[in-house]
Design goal:
CATH topology of chain A: ABC transporter involved in vitamin B12 uptake, BtuC
Helix content of chain A: over 70%
Strand order of the largest sheet of chain B: 8-9-10-5-11-12
Order of helices and strands of chain A: HHHHEEEHHHHEHHH
Distance between the termini of chain B: 67 Å
Largest sheet of chain B: 6 strands, mixed
Oligomer: heterodimer
Number of helices of chain B: 24
Structural class of chain B: alpha/beta
CATH topology of the largest domain in chain B: ABC transporter involved in vitamin B12 uptake, BtuC
Number of helices of chain A: 11
Shape of chain B: elongated
Shape of chain A: globular
Number of strands of chain B: 12
Number of domains of chain B: 2
CATH class of chain A: Mainly Alpha
Number of strands of chain A: 4
Chain lengths: 298, 593
Amino acid sequence: MTKLLQTIVDGLGVGSTYALLALGISLIFGVMHLVNFAHGELITVGAYVSYFFFLHGGSWWWMPVAIIGSAMLASVATELVAFRWVRNASPFTLLLTSFALERLSHALWQILVSPKQRAFPKPSWVFYQFKLGGISFEWMDIVTILVTAATLLLTALVFKRTMFGISVRGAAEDFDAARLMGVRANRVISGAFAFAGLLAGVAACLILMRSPSADPSMGSDWLMKAVIAAVVGGLGSFSGAVIGGLVLGLLETLTRAYLPEVATGWDKFSTAVTFVVIAAFFVARPDGIFKVSHAERV
Amino acid sequence: MPAVQQMLTRTGRSVFATAALVAVVAALASLYTSSGGASRESLIAEMLTNFIFVLGMQVFIGNTGVLSFGHMAFAQIAAYATAVVAIPLAAKVKALPDIPFGLDTVHFGAFGATAFAIAITLVVGAVFGIAVCRASGLAPTMITLAALFVVEQVVKNWSELTRGAGGLSGIPRLQGNGWLWVGAGIALVVAHLFQETRIGRFAIATREDELAAPALGIRLFTARYAAWIVSIGLIALGSSLRAQSLGSVNPKQFTLDQGILLLVMLVVGGMRSISGAVLGTVLITAGTELFRQLGDPQRLDIERFPDLFLGGTMLLVMLLRPGGLLGDRDLAGWLRRRMYRRPTAEPVTASPGTAVLKASEIEVHFGGFIALDGAGLAVRPGEVVGLIGPNGAGKTTLFNVITGLVREQGGRVLLGDDELTHSNPVQVARAGLARTFQNLRVFKNLSTRENVALAALVSARHRPHRTRVDVDTLLDDVGLGEWADRQAGTLDYGNQRRLELARAAALAPDFLLLDEPTSGMSDQESLAMVNSVRTVAARIGAGVLVIDHDLGFITRISDHIVVLNEGRVLAEGTPAEVRANPQVAEAYLGSSA
């Protein structure tokens, strides 16, 4: 029982990071039908910004502001230099454009800094432990879950209550109609990219507090998981992205913890099993958990 | 023997295009290797394997438009399958002491190992392909991505069979690049031939429009699956040859990054065009090598400049020419158009069909909204029936029920003695109902003639009992003769509507179902459309069911008019009777009229 609870807490911790990233991907997909494979690079940007500031005497007290700010700027910049110009292209073109940016980001960090990993200090309290009902937790688990919850709450408020959020949701529903209602396309899309950057920045903070280092391709691994989470949840669906992220996190930690018990010798295939489950899911429900209907006129 | 003759010209075209492309590449290659020695030969080897991989991907991705990241997974399976049967027994037992499946006693020569690898890969690919080709939207891409990770993990962890991350070496090496040239030639011929076959054309149709293709009787799954199998076969061939050319395999050769590199080659040249795939492979392979030499080989980061080159090139191509450098320009396609000879026989006219199209008591609700409440209609052979009614009357829904896009909760649809109730669009089309779409759905990247020819391919197969009218006659009938070689997406609005009419007619249907054929047209164009519809319908001997808002058009074209209102038939009769009916005027103009 203890093991199960601990596994679930671990799973929620990883899963909430996936959820934040998946939410950003889903948001961008909603407004412009782009599956943004460059989204993970925002983490890399945050990591190198942290590395740079720590070289010059940074502190974790204000580092999250720098990370989130730089991720937001970088996100808006990708829209300005690239995505704006292919806005009405096919999803295929959009996706490959984001791939190109991902590639360029890898190359630039290798050339500007180094292909090798660069480490910087972590906050001292991250791995402090405390016990609750016989289960030991790390402070970071609690911080992760609280920060994610707060961010999701903020997201919900923004998209339910503010004019900006409502415009974005309207645009996600039907871009042309939203435009006719006076929603400014450029502003809404820039805003959506800024917000996706904010979510990625928060995720980057959580990731970097645990493993404070920067390397050129660090964003890609997170990105793949986040894309899968977003698609599992149903692209364009906000609650789907969150649930998809949490489900993926739980699935990963649970297979890692329990698969060896079910079948000995299979522990090394736990990642493979996760992906088999995901593939099977897509076969059964190609549109994800929350299908976002884009009813097509014929 | 016209079929054989036709086959020969297709094959001839493919072989000629292949030979021309190989000759150009070989000339460049020999120019490059004439100085510089062995390292230059190995770059040529790399380029040739890239060719086979990229062409393999082109067959699926280029023709069906479904993005796959998973092709490297199958390359990996083929490479390891080659290794475990080709490595000499003594070396194998040493490297893999616990090898399962009794492979410790199996040894094949180069041919045997290649054939074995292709066979194994095809078996695995056939299973995965079912999942990939059944899904739509982004799901297939995600499934292939998952496949890539699964294979990667299995290879890394199943060390009894694969020796894990370290990989396997000691595969007997092929001497020189001769076999790679052969492999590249095979890949080119296969890719060209596939585009010439019926199923290959169908795959292209599914890429162009996922709704219009089934409405022409093309099954999405079958077309995609065929492309998938051919594609995986080529990938396996390329991978097995590469393993035997390098003499070793390891997981690093099959990462997502490698797959993306190949994808860049495909899209930079133009994924829809085989010539484009070849061009992209040459450009990217050469460019990557050039930028690699900028880096310092002593340092870890020799990949940084190639990455810069790849990212930059792909970004520029996507922003400036999203269809790739060549777009739809293709050597074989150009030959096909140049060699096209219009049939000399006199245009035929088909005799009218005999079946009656009958929909009765159709009921459809969407949630609580009742769209159709017992509506029905009948169209007799050769008759033109107009379907009118105010917005929301259920015209398009009734249309979609008949053509299998919307499932009815009650009622029946019959075509002669064929039960079409609850049929899907493919069955409906093959049974003899051809429809056009309110929102234009021509195959934009194909030529006007190719659009119509696709439907003719379906009718040749599934409607052999009907007289088929040749493609050019139909184009002339709708007035598109002079635009036959234009790309359909560049035709103006009215011409695209006429093209949809000709394409539907090429299906040799018993009935044409036209959904607002004059929407967005001027009065003059509408008048011309009346003639086009009548001429085409008479030519193919079909009846017509037509929806339109334009009362002038409907009364001019119809023999019989059915008026729908609120999901029910309000009135029907000849145009004159319907016009005189006070209820119709009321429904149309409001009660005050």
